[in-house]
Amino acid sequence: MLQDIPKYPYPIQHTFKQSWFGLYGGKHIQFGNNVPESEYKTRRSWLPNIKQKKLYSESLGWFIPLRVATSVLRTVDKVGGLDNYLTGTKTARVKELGPLGWKLRWEVMNSPAYQKKRAAELEAFGLSATKAQVYIKEQIQDEKKLEEPVPVPLVQKPKLEKPELVADEAGNIKL
Predict the structure, then answer these.
(1) Amino acid 137: pLDDT
(2) Quick one: 150 exposed, middle or buried, by C-beta within 10 A (0-12, 13-18, 19+)?
(3) CA distances to 58, 59, 109, 117, 120 from 113, in Å
(4) Which residues on neighbouring strands pair with residue 42, listed in sequence order?
(5) Of 4, 7, 59, 172, which residue is most buried, by most CB within 10 angstroms?
(6) Average pLDDT for 80-109
């Protein structure tokens, strides 16, 4: 099943590997100094506020145990649930999902309940059921295309012609 999931389209951050296994919303360890009154600085770090929660997915029909940043919990509540958070289309949202969120997004988008809901939404906009199914398949194919690298055209350097060197009678070279 993991082979069917398209590759995560953004670079995976290697500075805080813990964030690969939860919904951290782009949060990382931050570094700085403790500065007391004597101004003797001591290095320290701040960890993101992470909670272990079970979030319900309406499309999948079960609770998913996740490590979630508290800021992500507020966002999930604001957008109306885990499924809406995972299936958001803004690039910033997709970037902050991380590898686990990307996998969950794929599972939700391929669930029959989500596809029925999406088809009903499209029919409400005036698209027929067959057009809606084609539209959903196109969206899935577009996500698969994100994993393919974009070919960069090679720029060829213009070839410079060598000027003919001519020597005069005195032995001086002229162009």
Answers:
(1) 76
(2) exposed
(3) 8, 5, 9, 6, 11
(4) 34
(5) 59
(6) 90
Compare 58 and 153 and report the one with higher pLDDT. Answer: 58
Question: For residues 109 and 135, what is the distance between their CA atoms, to the nearest angstrom?
Answer: 13
Dist. CA 101–CA 64, nearest whole Å: 11
155, two tokens: 């720029």
What's the sign of the alpha-carbon dihedral 162, 163, 166, 171? negative
Residue type (1 letter), 78: K
CB 166 within 8 A of CB 173: yes
Other CB atoms within 10 Å distance of the CB of residue 146:
13
pTM, whole model, 2 decimals? 0.68
Contact of 35 with 41, CB cutoff 8 Å: yes
Burial class (CB in 10 A: 0-12, 13-18, 19+), 94: buried
Residue that has been written with the tokens 């009154």 in this structure: 37
Q: pLDDT tens-digit profile of 140-175?
A: 777 766 656 656 666 666 676 776 777 777 777 766
Rounded to whole angstroms, how far apart are CA atoms 89 and 38? 50
The end-to-end CA distance of the chain, in Å, is 68
